[in-house]
Known about the structure:
The structure is a single chain. The protein is built from six helices and six strands. By secondary structure, the protein is an alpha+beta fold. It folds into two domains: 1-39, no CATH class; 40-165, no CATH class. The strands form three sheets. The protein has a two-stranded antiparallel ribbon. A hairpin with a 6-residue loop joins strand 5 and strand 6 (123-124).
Amino acid sequence: MVMSREQNEERIPSVRIDNSTFERVEEFKYLGTTLKNQNSIPEEIKSRLRSGNACYHSVQNLLFSRLLSKNLKIYRTIILRVVLYGFETWSLILREERKLRVFENMVLTRIFGPRRDEVSGEWRRLHNEKLNHLHTSPHLVRVIQSRRIRWVEHVARKSNARRNIE
């Protein structure tokens, strides 16, 4: 893929490196991540959320099994890993953070289900504050931020180690 800031540049049908010729494409999928010449992060996040939603529906029977407790291990170990794949390259803006929070609250609401009000006896959907109380793990956006910091520290350590070798 050839990336350029110039939108009107001359269309080159292929790229030649040494003796190899590579076809020029607008986008391609690499290890589950769609890479585009426009580097569209919102589209990638939408794709990851669709994959996370599909993953949720595929493990839905496990989540509602009476044999398992609602400890959310399935959510954290399966669904979140699908959603967060390749997040190190995301530059999040508030719109994307909101989409991630909405997805997380939607899945947690489905997992915890409605609760019966002790006073009136009516079934009510859980509000976000109650979900936050029941789900003690950090929010999805906080997980992304902390893991990105860890990843940057790892890259910095690698760079320092390589400088010391040379």
